[in-house]
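TICKET: design request
STATUS: open
ATTACHED STRUCTURE:
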């Protein structure tokens, strides 16, 4: 189980990589050690032969044996002035098994021969060929036993391997402690914070406080902190929405009954002969009908169930004219400060839920009217509609003061995107949800000192 953890796997990889590095260093070291060992034997053999030559060969056999034993060779051959001369010699215990030319050996040959030398059989005789030191001849050849070389190489290799093992373990331990301190412990802290937060996400005290000094881990902690803050805010908002939904549902239930009574009374004034009443009665009945429908929808929304759109084919312009007339009446004396423009083709037919679309456009137009009225200056509101290849685009454009930055940043967030003092921002949230139910999209195109433009996009056949 230990090697399934991050620190365990890192420790294992560290051991493997350090050992691999040591092996890559070990082989050339062994090769170089063998070469130096053999060159030393050649130099000693040359010194022994020069001692013999300096005495004109007048040395005893015992002294010659001591010179060969000191050099660690069986015989020495010098080539001087194109003459090959056996300078020192002694009995060779066996045939020569291998010959090594030390003059032109490449690194690859040295590494191969170095590894092979550690596994040569006992009593193996080898011949060495090299250049004499100080150019004391053209060539020198020596014959020697490979056993001392094998034993020396093995002893050297064991010391190198032991040192490599110590370095590997020390390096792995230091790296393990570093990873444990700098990475694993902060990650465990993040995991513990997530577990604590999951038990009580509404409690702001369980939100993580970034304190890691590692850049990447601190970035992860900060991202987790933002996520937890957003989620906590969303949960609180959801709770407030649930409470609001219950309250609105109860109010809408009673309001629906009151409006139903008002609708029955409005039916009676349809028979009036007063021209003003005749013109206003249908609009009053339509307004009451929409209010009753809105109360019924609010009851469903209070249960977190916005009813799906009932798609029908209808003419868009009459509906826009109707809602504009309603806004003019709502504006009263202030209506002269707001100019309403309608640029919708009279023949344009739209397949959508007329009640839901009426609510969406009314919300946008009313927000624009209230924003212009709040400035105390004149302005205009224009509703346009155009058929495109992929759908229908409905735009609501005003010349108002534009939305404040806070409203733009939280435009479709309930209780956060209100542009007016005391506004809840629920209108745009509900409008965006209704448009999404049609498979479309409600978006803010622009909002600056020249005005605001919203765009409703509905796909064909929505």
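STATUS: resolved
RESOLUTION: sequence designed for all positions
ATTACHED SEQUENCE:
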């Amino acid at each position: 189980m230990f090697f399934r953890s991050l620190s365990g796997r890192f420790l294992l990889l560290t051991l493997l990589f350090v050992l691999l590095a040591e092996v890559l260093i070990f082989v050339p070291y062994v090769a170089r050690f063998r070469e130096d060992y053999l060159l030393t034997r050649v130099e000693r053999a040359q010194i022994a032969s020069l001692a013999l030559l300096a005495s004109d060969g007048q040395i005893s056999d015992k002294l010659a044996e001591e010179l060969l034993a000191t050099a660690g060779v069986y015989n020495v051959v010098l080539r001087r002035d194109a003459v090959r001369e056996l300078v020192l010699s002694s009995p060779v215990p066996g045939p020569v098994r291998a010959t090594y030319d030390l003059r032109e050996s490449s690194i690859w040959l040295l590494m191969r021969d170095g590894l092979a030398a550690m596994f040569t059989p006992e009593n193996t005789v080898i011949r060495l060929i090299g250049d004499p030191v100080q150019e004391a001849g053209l060539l020198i050849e020596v014959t020697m036993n490979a056993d001392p070389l094998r034993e020396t190489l093995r002893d050297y290799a064991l010391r190198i391997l032991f040192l490599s093992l110590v370095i590997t373990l020390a390096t792995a331990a230091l790296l393990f402690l570093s990873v444990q301190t700098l990475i694993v412990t902060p990650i465990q802290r993040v995991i513990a914070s997530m577990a604590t937060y999951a038990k009580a996400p509404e409690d702001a005290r369980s939100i993580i406080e970034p304190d890691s000094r590692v850049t990447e881990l601190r970035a992860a902690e900060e991202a987790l902190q933002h996520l937890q803050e957003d989620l906590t805010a969303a949960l609180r908002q959801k709770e407030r929405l649930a409470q609001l939904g219950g309250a609105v549902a109860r109010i809408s239930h009673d309001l629906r009954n009151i409006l139903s009574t008002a609708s029955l009374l409005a039916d009676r004034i349809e028979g009036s002969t007063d021209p003003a009443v005749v013109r206003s009665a249908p609009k009053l009945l339509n307004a009451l009908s929409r209010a009753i429908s809105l109360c019924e929808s609010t009851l469903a929304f209070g249960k977190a169930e916005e009813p799906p759109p009932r798609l029908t084919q209808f003419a868009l312009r009459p509906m826009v004219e109707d809602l504009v007339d309603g806004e003019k009446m709502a504006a009263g004396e202030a209506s002269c400060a707001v100019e309403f423009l309608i640029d919708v083709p009279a023949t344009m037919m739209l397949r959508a839920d007329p009640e839901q679309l009426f609510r969406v456009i009314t919300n946008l137009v009313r927000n624009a009217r209230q924003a212009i009225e709040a400035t105390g200056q004149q302005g205009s509101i224009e509703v346009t509609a155009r058929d495109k290849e992929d759908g229908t685009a409905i735009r609501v454009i005003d010349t108002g003061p534009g939305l404040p930055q806070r409203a733009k940043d939280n435009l479709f967030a309930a209780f956060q995107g209100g542009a007016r003092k005391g506004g809840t921002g629920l209108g745009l949230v509900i409008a965006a949800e209704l448009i999404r139910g049609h498979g479309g999209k409600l978006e803010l195109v622009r909002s600056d000192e020249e005005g605001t433009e919203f765009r409703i996009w509905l796909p064909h056949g929505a």
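CLOSING REMARK: The chain has a mean pLDDT of 79. The longest strand covers residues 379-387.
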